[in-house]
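Tokens in:
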């Protein structure tokens, strides 16, 4: 893991410390990693929505069995990296 130093105003540091205590994070690093993961998920969702809109606005294309199999493989590969959360 790589270390990154950041500078924050005192108010932001206090806010982070409050969130750590309130939400049960072990450290500021853990809290910031959670924020970054959430931002990455939002970005991925926006990109997916843009692709879906692009597909809806484009011409209709006949899907082949090979297309469906490829989509299924990609979906399963994506799910393989997901952690199961309670």
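Residues out:
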């Amino acid at each position: 893991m790589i270390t990154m130093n950041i500078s924050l105003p005192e108010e932001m540091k206090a806010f982070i410390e409050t969130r750590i205590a309130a939400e049960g994070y072990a450290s500021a690093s853990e809290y910031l990693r959670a924020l970054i993961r959430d931002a990455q998920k939002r970005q991925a969702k926006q990109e997916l929505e843009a692709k879906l809109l692009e597909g809806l606005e484009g011409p209709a294309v006949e899907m082949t069995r090979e297309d469906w199999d490829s989509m299924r493989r990609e979906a399963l590969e994506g799910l393989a990296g997901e952690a199961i959360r309670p």
